[in-house]
């Protein structure tokens, strides 16, 4: 029986209990993260995580090899694609302000098994990402010493005698320093990150300002080329946008701090939105200046900014650019290490990892054990390993997370978690009201019509009832029963206490809605139609979401994986395109479940243009995922396979959800036996 329960938990969604979590926050503050972040802190975290050192290199590489002078348009298209994922994150993070980010959303909306895979992939992403960023500090620091070879011996890269291992003490020390800063507290680390972000932004503003002055002085010769504005055509511009998409990765770090935000419903969407807007604006301004200063085919792909200023007699500007790159590396490193301890903590809270990782320091209110472990592992990798070959694996975890967040948003809108409405059978007038237990988060709506007609119990959502004629609101006290407008009690909790024929003017114990008797007039054969229609709508939504996702995968395999034989790619394209179009059309035609309005925190951000926007996000992310190449996907598959083994050995047997299912089954069997 235990094996069956654990297998069921693998596909069961986690129930959101925000009220219980808030109660635990008040009664056990030492076990919870502290809410200390405001919107400005979130913006600095988002900009610092996104506006990394890559922009100091990417503008040269993409302009020279793919986009040419159209680099600005490539940044714009990439920003729009990133905004699709950002809007999905904004709604889910404001509705579910809990640690864990994409892992938590997948656990709540999809299943435990998918959530584990996402969490395991994010562990790889943040660890390798932090190590990769840290290894870039030495070349930029060496500029101030006249080259890397002139760095002090205790921070210079060295090769172990008799081996090819190149250690980087500077990278390891930087990771440990950032780890110590993060252990001091989220507010303290956010303040330091704000200072570094301001320095980075000022450097980029200097590049834009000084570069514009040089451009107007020289006549913007980069835009006067014989090849025109699109030397590589539209395909080159779009290919450049696909590469530049990864320059926008980092806003998801904001979502990982949701449990530490004072007003998550307002501040999280603002933090994500403003972070993306600031980074996108700087990217476009910067690219417009650089490709105008130097012809795209003459841009140095390694040092595009410094070489551009050298061309115009400003060699001293390279020191300012290097300072900005160091600041960008530092903030990007914080953005890589900050989310992982919170994901480890969320997985440990759910029992999928040992409780050791969920320990929160009583003073600093940070997951100290997870932070230290993350920092030590990342520092060791940065010190000993050349992680350049693993850097492509970072993008896999990010794109998987972006994809599952968009899928979770579709599920939320069409199949909202723990918002299902209990189905209660119709009862004769002389049998009294049924006894049923409900919770405040699972509202039940009932109405009873005149005895001239068959009694009807109708289950509606709030939004549906507001559109019906003759409804009136009654104050909701406890959310355990409902009464009709005639005063007849229709629904009670499971305590067994029943009252019939209450006085018309008597105050109900608790009521959500009362409907006039003239609302419904149907016979017994039609009373089950609302239930059957809702079941049909849910199944249609399940098949439509699944069909759209399968169609996206097949289209992406056909369009992005060049290693596949051409006939296979044609088959995938011919199968995937109609599947995606048909499933998307169905999602546009069927109604969204109004129960999603009661899911999670009330008053959160609502993503616009659903289902078009999340479907577009899935299409973009899966296409980019497939375009990373078969070798990269195979390397990530090995890591994910290791994660499956860990889950089967430890996570499945210690899962909180599995334990709850087992207790429910044992209770049910005991009640049945008695």
From TrEMBL:
Membrane topology, as annotated: Multi-pass membrane protein
Source superkingdom: Eukaryota
Organism: Sphagnum jensenii
Family recorded in the similarity comment: Belongs to the amino acid-polyamine-organocation (APC) superfamily. Cationic amino acid transporter (CAT) (TC 2.A.3.3) family.
Principal location listed in the UniProt entry: membrane
Transmembrane stretches, start-end: 39-59, 71-90, 102-123, 166-185, 197-217, 229-251, 272-296, 316-338, 359-384, 390-412, 539-561, 567-590, 602-626, 632-650
The keyword Membrane is annotated on this UniProt entry: yes
Signal peptide positions on this chain: none
Descriptive protein name: Cationic amino acid transporter C-terminal domain-containing protein
UniProt key word Transmembrane: yes
Subcellular location: Membrane
Entry keywords, A to Z: Membrane, Transmembrane, Transmembrane helix, Transport
Domain Cationic amino acid transporter C-terminal per the UniProt entry, residue ranges: 605-655
Pfam families: AA_permease_2, AA_permease_C
């Amino acid at each position: 029986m235990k094996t069956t329960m654990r297998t069921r938990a693998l596909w069961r969604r986690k129930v959101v209990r925000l009220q219980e979590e808030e109660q635990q926050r008040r009664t056990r503050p030492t076990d919870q993260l502290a809410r200390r972040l405001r919107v400005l802190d979130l913006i600095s975290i988002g900009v610092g995580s996104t506006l990394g050192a890559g922009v100091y290199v990417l503008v040269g590489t993409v302009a020279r090899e793919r986009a040419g002078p159209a680099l600005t348009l490539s940044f714009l298209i990439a920003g729009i694609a990133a905004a699709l994922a950002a809007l999905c994150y904004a709604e889910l993070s404001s509705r579910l302000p809990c640690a864990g980010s994409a892992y938590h959303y997948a656990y709540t909306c999809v299943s435990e098994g998918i959530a584990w895979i996402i969490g395991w992939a994010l562990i790889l992403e943040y660890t390798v990402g932090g190590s990769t960023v840290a290894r870039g500090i030495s070349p930029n620091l060496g500029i101030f010493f006249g080259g890397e070879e002139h760095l002090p011996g205790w921070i210079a890269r060295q090769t172990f005698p008799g081996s090819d291992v190149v250690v980087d003490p500077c990278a390891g020390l930087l990771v440990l320093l950032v780890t110590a800063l993060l252990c001091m507290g989220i507010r303290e680390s956010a303040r330091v990150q704000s200072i570094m972000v301001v320095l980075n932004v000022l450097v980029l503003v200097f590049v834009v300002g000084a570069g514009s002055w040089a451009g107007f002085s020289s006549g913007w010769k980069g835009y006067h080329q014989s090849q025109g504005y699109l030397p590589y055509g539209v395909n080159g511009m779009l290919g450049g946008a696909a590469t530049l998409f990864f320059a926008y990765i980092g806003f998801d770090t904001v979502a990982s701090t949701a449990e530490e935000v004072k007003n998550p419903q307002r501040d999280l969407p603002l933090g994500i939105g403003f972070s993306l807007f600031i980074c996108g604006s700087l990217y476009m301004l910067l690219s417009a200046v650089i490709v105008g200063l130097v012809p795209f085919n003459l841009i140095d792909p390694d040092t595009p900014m410094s070489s551009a200023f050298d061309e115009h007699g400003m060699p001293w500007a390279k020191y300012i650019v290097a300072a900005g790159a160091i600041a960008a590396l530092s903030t990007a490193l914080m953005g890589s290490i900050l989310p992982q301890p919170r994901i480890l903590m969320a997985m440990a809270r759910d029992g999928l990892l040992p409780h050791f990782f969920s320990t929160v320091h009583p003073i600093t209110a940070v997951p100290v054990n997870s932070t230290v472990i993350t920092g030590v592992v990342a520092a060791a990798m940065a010190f000993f390993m050349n992680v350049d070959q693993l850097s492509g694996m970072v993008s896999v975890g990010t794109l998987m997370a972006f994809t599952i967040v968009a899928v979770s948003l579709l599920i939320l809108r069409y199949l909202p978690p723990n918002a299902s409405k209990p189905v209660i059978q119709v009862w004769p007038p002389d049998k009294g009201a049924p006894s049923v237990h409900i919770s405040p988060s699972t509202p039940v709506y009932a109405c009873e019509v005149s005895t001239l007609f068959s009694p009807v119990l109708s289950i509606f959502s709030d939004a549906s009832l507001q559109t019906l004629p003759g409804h009136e609101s009654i104050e909701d006290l406890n959310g355990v029963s409902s009464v009709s407008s005639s005063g007849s009690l229709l629904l009670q909790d499971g305590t067994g206490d029943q009252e019939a024929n209450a006085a018309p003017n008597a105050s109900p114990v608790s009521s959500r809605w009362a409907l006039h008797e003239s609302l419904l007039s149907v016979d017994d054969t039609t009373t089950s139609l609302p239930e059957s229609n809702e079941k049909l709508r849910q199944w249609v939504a399940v098949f439509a979401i699944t069909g759209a996702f399968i169609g996206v995968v097949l289209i992406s395999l056909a369009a992005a994986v060049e290693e596949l034989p051409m006939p296979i790619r044609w088959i995938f394209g011919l199968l995937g395109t109609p599947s995606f179009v048909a499933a998307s059309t169905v999602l546009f035609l069927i109604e969204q479940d109004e129960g999603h309005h009661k899911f999670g925190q009330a008053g959160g951000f609502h993503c616009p243009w659903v289902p078009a926007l999340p479907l577009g996000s899935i299409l973009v992310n899966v296409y980019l995922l497939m375009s990373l190449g078969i070798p990269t996907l195979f390397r990530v598959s090995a890591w994910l396979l290791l994660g499956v083994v860990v889950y089967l050995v430890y996570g499945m047997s210690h899962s909180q959800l599995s334990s709850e299912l087992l207790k429910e089954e044992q209770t049910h069997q005991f009640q049945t036996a008695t």
